[in-house]
Amino acid sequence: MIFASARLAFADIFSAPFRGALWKALGLSAIVLVALWFGIAAIAEWFAVPFLSNLFPDTPSWVDQAGSLAGWAAGFALAILLAFLIGPISAVIASLFLDDVAEVVEANTYPEVPAGTAMPLIPGLILSVKFFGVVILGNLLALVLLLVPGINIAAFFVVNGYLLGREYFEFAAMRYRTEAEAKALRGRYGTTVFLAGLLIAGFLAVPLLNLLTPLFAAALMVHLHQRVSRKEGGLIAAPARADRLARG
Questions:
Q1: How far apart are CA 225 and CA 204, in angstroms?
Q2: Scanning 88, 162, 167, 248, which has the fewest C-beta atoms within 10 Å of its C-beta?
Q3: Are 213 and 87 in contact (CB under 8 A)?
Q4: Please, what's the b/e burial string for 95-122 (b: 16 or more CB within 10 A of its CB; e: otherwise)?
Q5: How far apart are CA 109 and CA 117, in angstroms?
Q6: Integer Cα distance of 201 and 136 in angstroms
Q7: Are 45 and 71 in contact (CB under 8 A)?
Q8: pTM of the predicted model as reported, rounded to 2 decimal places
């Protein structure tokens, strides 16, 4: 069930119906990353030389050289920072288009199932911030655990597998269920969701391909939720979003 869902999701993200969401997510992610690069680099350059000039007023040539070195060091640190931020930034941007992804998967692969209910703008923005926080937290925890001998890279997969699996599965489930119902369903299939989350973490670990992680994760969990729901007796038409939020 997991690998079949992953195979379908991987094919989905490169299919024609996905291209709109794919290019919008990649384009906005690139714009944000480039803007961050120039913005932080400009701030670093603006502060470095004046700070060193005030600190060492009698050695202007040395200060210029130090300022240049500081600029290179800041650029190197910035490159590392942006490499760390690629996943979170792409996650928060792509999360704006997750309902588009889910609608395509549901319509193309499960036409016999009633369409899910998209999330309104404000709850959708809250979900985007939540995804951003989850990815940041997961990577910070993994980064700390990477320093612990005997754990290392396994920490990255376990932490991200759990957090990403949980959030994306609940997103897919909440298109048909209240939040409480989505959490309960995830609890009943916790091992399956976690193993699917490990596949998402593996996707996240591949440079450049990790830009597509949110789209792959959303498609994977939509497929997985549909298959799990068949075991639960199938899906019915989703109630109005306002009623669902009130019930949840």
A1: 21
A2: 248
A3: yes
A4: bbbbbbbbbbbbeeebeebebbbbbeee
A5: 17
A6: 13
A7: yes
A8: 0.72
